[in-house]
Fold this sequence. Notes:
The protein is α/β, with parallel strands linked by helices. It has helices at residues 9-20, 54-57, 60-65, 67-82, 88-98, 113-117, 178-190, 209-215, 242-253, and strands at residues 24-28, 104-107, 122-124, 127-134, 140-142, 165-169, 193-197, 219-223, 236-238.
Amino acid sequence: MERQVAISSELECLAELLGRARSAVALTGAGVSVPSGIPDFRTPETGLWAKVDPMEVAHIDVFEHEPERFWSYYRPRFEVLGDKQPNRAHEVLAELERRGLIEGLITQNIDRLHRAAGSKNVVEVHGSIETSSCRTCAASFELEEMDGLFDERGVAVCSVCRGAVKPDVVLFGELLPESAMARASELAERADLILCVGSSLAVYPVAGLPQVTLDRGGRLAIITKGATPYDADAELKLEGEVDEELAALLAALG
Length: 254
């Protein structure tokens, strides 16, 4: 039996904004996956970076020059993320796309959960753990194949040419893919509403996308815990649990 959800006036306002928008886009960050059991990056004690400096392990220079160190950190991430399932927030965003209420979804997450939930027009600006690629011969490997590629050092090695295999994600020290950012910018420019969910909106260049929409005369709505640089510019800001807020939004839409 579906649990009843409370619908606030802010959620009714957001439902109205979505219903009136000619083109709306969602932008998501790590917070949208927290209900799936994936800790975010910056929360003290529990965040993924709480006990390690990412610049020390998840950096392209470490991958290239200290692969054992890199993979000692990244291999467990594969195991942690690989079996996670979409939560209600992912499902509602997929449903909004199915209903034509959002045109697409831009995500900073690499966990592939938006696609698993059924979202179709997804721009993964930081890449995805779905695949990894050989830096020498460009052979591609699915996540499920990765465990068989690790050698006695704990380093992923290509089964075709023995080259170094890298996750198809953007590491620190790398530029975001031009094609992904171009698609994200196009969605933000076209949108008259951008709905930001579970993101602190602090990591650029993605954090600049809401300003793109605002500069074109569009509106901004935010669902996330904690302050963002855009709070004063938003039509509304909701700070409850993202899965609960989005479930209530769906109920408000009817």
